[in-house]
Amino acid sequence: MHIRWIFRQYYRDPYDPGTRSLRIKGKRSKERMVYLTASAVGRIEAWLTVRRRDAGGLFPPFTPRGRHIRRDEHGRIGFIDARTVSNVLAARAEQAGLDEVPKAHDFRRTFIGELLDAGVDLATAQALVGHASPATTARYDRRPERVRRTAVDKLATPDAVPLPGAAPRRRTPGA
User: For the residues 42-65, what does the mean pLDDT come to?
Assistant: First the structure.
């Protein structure tokens, strides 16, 4: 899921904890379901107790220290923006002692890589992230060559049997 898809999610947009899903509008306003892990549902439920059920962005901007949700001049909850996400990532990177601040897209890359590492097929990973082409999803494949070799080793090939009427090949010396 692209972080920009989250930016414009309204609270009223269908979030269903029963099916662990969130309806997202992606590129060209194409709607699709995003499925959440059980722990993500727990986090969203905890977040909704803080955010409350007021209309507005599902993930709104907040004050720099994270103490208050920002509202517009009419008291409506706004929408999170790229700057807020970058600020949160920078603060968390500092807390973790990281030398480099991750970018939001790094999480998408990690998600796809983790799916493929876990053995999820490329078509399913493609559907989960909303790529139109499997080639786009394949670019995120970080599995090493040994995994690919092991995959080929799982194939069973029949033993070679000479064709009926075919003369056996003779080896010529020096060939």
Answer: 78
